[in-house]
Amino acid sequence: MGLLSNRVERSEIKAGDHIYTYRAVFAYSHHGIFVGGSKVVHFTPRHDANSSTETSANSYEEKYDLPSSCPTFPDCGFRQPNSGVVLTCLDCFLRNGSLYSFEYGVTPSVFLAKVRGGTCTTAMPDPPETVIHRAMYLLQNGFGNYDVFQNNCEDFALYCKTGLLIVERSGVGRSGQASSIVGAPLAALLSSPLKLLMPSPIGVATVTAGMYCMSRYATDIGVRSDVIKVAVEELAVNLGWGEGGDEEEDNGVTDQLIAM
């Protein structure tokens, strides 16, 4: 993977990898965990017939709706009732888009050089078997309510890869995309008083870009102080999502779904 693009070929990804693809002409990216067997577990707004709050708040995410049928895998689109965590084949996940691999353990200089958020983190990943276990456990037990800024598809993949959870959930979540959205106007706002000191447009642009990058870096889970390691079996109870599931039963379902 290069500095400008994390694009990879299908033959290069391995089970437990955090992958993503761009939607709407690179307007945003959709993230998931490749679990092997040409299957991806990812997080979308749930479809609750008794509630319209999520779909109204995140209307653009409706583009993640699954096709009515998959010609290759009969279990493509599997999800528990009222859950946003879904298992699909790689083709349906990509929707004819290109495949990209999210980078972990990058240096601060590399992180800052990748101006676009949602492509890398300084945090270190856990072993692939741990990542797959988290993804399949959450497929059975859910990942709470979808939120563009605090609990989105990138947040889901980041948690599966690292087990890190933000203690105070009133701000921006782990997502690099969300940090970029917040960071851009913040950088412009903070740099505006400096315009009087830097009459050159190039100087103002340089300061704005620097503040934007630093605001992204400050919210990266690899450097934040408000993140803790939370076991996936304790996640639901910890955040009040429910009682959690039966781990032994989950393991059996995991093997069956990936093998199909």
UniProtKB/TrEMBL annotation:
> Residues in domain LRAT?
20-169
Query: Which species does this protein come from?
Result: Rhododendron simsii
| Annotated protein name in UniProt | LRAT domain-containing protein
What InterPro entries does the database record attribute to this sequence?
A: LRAT_dom
Show the Pfam families listed in the entry: LRAT
* Cleavable signal peptide: none
- Superkingdom assignment: Eukaryota
